[in-house]
Specification:
Order of helices and strands of chain A: HHH
Structural class of chain A: mainly alpha
Distance between the termini of chain A: 107 Å
Largest sheet of chain B: none
Number of strands of chain B: 0
Distance between the termini of chain B: 46 Å
Oligomer: heterodimer
Helix content of chain A: 40-55%
Order of helices and strands of chain B: HHHHHHHHHHHHHH
Strand content of chain A: under 5%
Number of helices of chain B: 14
Number of helices of chain A: 3
Strand content of chain B: under 5%
Chain lengths: 143, 346
């Protein structure tokens, strides 16, 4: 049995994170979640690089991860700016609305099942009726 | 051995497929159960940790948290929860960095991604519709094909890792040697002993990540040189002694395949700053990392700075414009719905 966590253990974790991130990017339709999935793929790659750096006994892996971080920061800035622009023009974060950019002969992908209606809004609180105070009959006073 | 990869991959596929958001979701319990089975199987079959030393336990904890919150990130319907899961992924990855003797990277990752997560939160609060159903959050795009392709990729990577680092042929040869050691006549079990030793020599040379292979190779070469002499004179005790040494050292070496305490340090194409001393990589490597960056990687560091500047300018240029459209857009505004719904009609 291995005495400690070994190179292949870290590589397995990196591969699983990469695969999950890929599924998230392919299957989800929210721009923000797609962006987070890509960042998770980068995390999987970073784990691999650091493990190889330690396994080889040098610092190249860590230096590479620093550059990955730099590029990830740039990517985050550009991606969020693009998401903002796309949201401004269509008022939705759904990526499928952009399938109008498809090729001319291509059929659109249609969602067959309609969304259920939004939940009914909770009833407004009943206020005590307010208005002009009715005239109270004046009772004559007897002294 | 193939089953060890196929089982967790198939269970993970089923779990993620059932958990992905759709308009009529499957019961959460099934997806959760399948994913939990996949995680346990992967822990038992793929990541054989061994002794319960703190390093192993921490590795198990951090990787389990990372994978579970990664799964939550891709299956959560609410983007705020997804951003929180991403924060957990980043934190546990930072724990793994710390286990791998990379403290500076841990700090840098926390700082950079903390900023990224805060900005993402702002975006979610600003843009996402918090109430009701939305196309973005309650539908998936081709969930089956996406899940299958992702898990096929993961399974292929795991299979490749298994083939590279598990060294099944070397284990088989060593088992053969052990069987010969226990029998009355080693030559009867091994058959052509010279061929066996040649195979063993080749495997030891080719197995990746094998520490201390020099000693083992010397022993095998010695045994090869004298094997014929021993065989002719039927000198079984000497044969057994040589095989015993090979089995013992081979067993020790194969236990340490992929060990993170490197014995041989690669020095090619690097200045002295990039190479750490032999043995365990010291955790105090922040200053050497800085020296590496500003000697071996000076040009990439400058390019990285330029890239950051360009990205900042680009982000401002993309998002800074506040032009109103000159003519009303033919596409729906907020609340008008998705034009790509057939409303039940195919």
């Amino acid at each position: 049995m291995n005495p400690a966590a070994t190179l292949q253990n870290y590589l397995v974790v990196g591969a699983i994170l990469f695969g999950l991130g890929m599924i998230g990017f392919l299957a989800r339709r929210n721009f923000i979640i797609m962006f987070l999935s890509v960042e998770m793929m980068l995390q999987g790659v970073a784990i691999n690089l650091v493990a190889f750096g330690r396994y080889r006994g040098n610092l190249q892996g860590q230096a590479f991860v620093l550059f990955v971080l730099t590029v990830a920061a740039c990517e985050a800035a550009i991606a969020l700016a693009l998401i903002l622009m796309l949201y401004r023009s269509r008022r939705t974060l759904d990526v499928s609305i952009w399938q109008e950019l498809r090729e001319p002969g291509q059929e659109p992908t249609l969602d067959e099942e309609p969304l259920p209606p939004p939940p009914a809004e909770p009833p407004l609180p009943k206020l005590t009726p307010a208005g002009v105070e009715p005239r109270h009959p004046q009772e004559p006073s007897h002294v | 051995m193939l089953l060890a990869i196929v089982l967790p991959v198939v269970f993970g596929l089923i779990g993620v497929y059932l958990l992905l958001p759709r308009v009529r979701p499957f019961p959460t319990i099934w997806g959760t159960a399948a994913s939990g089975i996949a995680l346990l199987l992967a822990g038992f079959l793929l990541i054989r940790g061994g002794m319960a030393v703190p390093e192993n336990l921490l590795f198990y904890c951090f990787s389990a948290i990372a994978i579970v919150s990664g799964g939550l990130l891709i299956t959560q319907r609410n983007p705020v929860h997804a951003a929180l899961s991403f924060a957990l992924v980043v934190l546990s990855t930072c724990g793994l960095f710390l286990l791998q003797a990379a403290p500076f990277l841990m700090a840098a990752t926390i700082i950079v991604y903390a900023g990224a997560i805060v900005v993402t939160f702002l975006f979610v609060i600003m843009l996402a519709q918090q109430t009701g159903w939305s196309d973005a959050d309650h539908r998936s795009r081709e969930p089956f094909i996406a899940t299958v392709s992702g898990f096929v990729l993961t399974g292929a990577l795991l299979y490749l890792l298994q083939q590279t680092y598990a060294a099944p042929r070397l284990h088989k040869l060593l088992q053969q040697a052990e069987a010969a050691l226990g029998s009355d006549s080693p030559t009867a079990v091994l058959g052509d002993g010279d061929q066996f030793l040649a195979d063993l020599h080749r495997e030891v040379e080719q197995t990746r990540g094998l520490p201390e292979r020099g000693v083992l190779l010397d022993e095998i070469t010695n045994a090869r040189g004298k094997w014929k002499e021993w065989k002719d004179s039927k000198n079984f005790p000497e044969m057994r002694a040589a095989l015993h040494r090979i089995v013992e050292d081979g067993g020790k070496a194969t236990d340490e395949i992929g060990s993170l305490s490197p014995q041989e340090v690669t020095r090619e194409h690097m200045s002295a700053y990039s190479v750490l001393p032999k043995g365990n990589v010291l955790p105090e490597n922040v200053a050497p990392l800085g020296r590496t960056l500003f000697t071996d990687y000076l040009l990439p560091v400058e390019l990285g700075g330029t890239l950051l500047l360009v990205a900042t300018i680009g982000a401002i240029a993309i998002s800074g414009r506040r032009m109103m459209p000159a003519h009303p857009s033919p596409l729906p505004r907020r609340g008008e719905g998705n034009p790509y719904v057939t409303e039940g009609k195919p």
